[in-house]
Structure formats: structure tokens, C-alpha cells
Amino acid sequence: MKTTTKFVYALTGLFMSGLVLSCSDNEDVQPVDASAETMVGPVDEHGSDHDGSCSYVDNAWASSANLYTSLPNSGSTSGADLLVSQNVAIKTFWRGSSVAAPLFRFVRDLSNPRSTFNAMSYSSGKIYYGEEIYKWAKNRDGSNLINVMILAHEYGHQLQYAYGLPSRQENTARAGELEADGMAGYYLRRGYGKSSFAAIATAYEAASAIGDYDTNSGGHHGTPAQRKSAVRLGFLFADPQNAKLTATSFDSNFFYYYNGVLNGTYRMAQPSSVTPEFHAFMLTHMEELGKIANGEMSDEEYRNL
Ligand SMILES: [Zn+2]
Of the candidates 36, 17, 35, 236, which has an alpha carbon nearest to the alpha carbon of residue 118? Predict the structure, then answer.
């Protein structure tokens, strides 16, 4: 993510915020990460992990960034506690109550705020969420649906770490990123209760602006059209007439219909992993998914699906 805008923050805010913020303590020190997945683009993740330090996050973030368990509940950071509770709710939706939720922390950097325009999911069971991406999403959607969508995407990476997904391997991050988008669409309908696609589509149009066309980059997340198609596919899987999917069954279904996400062509034979009813339901949406993936569907049509 390239940034050209410089932000200037009053340093006094750093000290005043101490009343309502707390640096994370050392209770949850994790092993060194093998990898991390992001929402918005490639980040090299190597070296030491210093979760728990107030002076250093890790080398995926600026050296001046810090970890916090909350953000001020006012102005453009109001409502951020929703993500803390959703971090647990999304986990419970997919994995039940007996599995621990990821360690969730906000990353804040008042001297270099644009450096926190990112959210990262770590293989050691952590999600770090940048203050700037929170504010960006909150400003575009006061209901915070974009932020919940981003968090659900990051939790999709936690599912991938836990279950060895995605089952499809490509030369770039695309398969895993598009699957995480699909998992987010699935959660928003089935777990977060957004029964209408319109609200999700509006939110996702904002988020999909982050999609890239750098298809040869290792961090390629899929084109915006592919990301929109992926979230729509997840939304369709979540139709109430379909049985609830586990992470692994979501994966097998997602990659069965994946060519439609990529280029609008769909295999038509019924996969052995799904019921005839499920496949018949999906077939009724093939043309629509193809139009999304091919970029032939207008934003207005997409919102009104
Ligand atoms: Zn991602």
C-alpha cells in the first residue's frame, strides 16, 4: 500500500491517551512466527517476535509502533471494542467455545500513523489490527461492517493456519486471500446476521479498492473483481437453506467453484463433497458469479444482487 499523505499528530495525544489505553502486558508471549497474512498487501515477516513489548511490535510494523488492548472510545476510533468482542464471536462461530480466540491487539503509532494501515494474522495465533485501517473503515461505514469484514478475513487466515488450508497452492498468496474473503462473506451472513447482500456489497466495494492487479507479486491478493466474486460466493454458501460448513468443507466447496471466481467459468458436474440440493442451488448463481469475476457487473447491479 503506497502512501503519499503525511499526517501530523500532536504529541500531547500520546500522553493523554495513556488514561484510556493500555499497552499489552507479557502474559501472552508467543513463539516466533513462521508467517503472517495481511489484508492489504505483501509484508515480509521474518525475525523476532516481541509481542508484549511496549517499545517494539515486530519487524512487520514500524519501530515506533506499540500494541494496545483498546483504542479511545471517541471520534474516529469510537466503537473499536466491537472488534475485541468480534474476535471471540468469529472464532466461536467457526470453531466453537472450547477453542481459544486469537490474541487480539491494536497497533498504534502516533509518530507515523500511516504505518498502521494494515491488519495482520499470525501463524502463532495472533491478530494485530492497525489503528489507521480501523479509522479508514470506520469513516466509510459508521456501523463498522467494513472493520468486521476485515477482521473476519484475518480470522480466515487463522482457520487456514489451524487446518492446513488453503488446499489449493499457487505461486502467489491469491488462493488463500480469496478464500479468506469468501470466509468473511460467509461469516457476515451466517454469523453476523447480514441477510441482505446489499449492505455487505457496499462495504466490500470499499474494501475491494484495496485489491491489487500485481498478479505476479508474491503477495497478490486477487483483483478487485475476483475479491468481489469470492465474497459473493461465500455469501451464497451461507444461504440458510444450506447446511453450515466447517472450515475444511468451506475450503473444498470454495475451490470446487474457484474457477468461477477467477475467470467466470464454472465446473458443472456435482462434486462428491456436496449434496445435489447444494449444487443445484449453486448452479442457479453461476451466470451471476461469472459476470462479477469478469468485471461485467456494475457496482449498482452488485449492490442489488
Ligand atoms: Zn489476507
Answer: 36
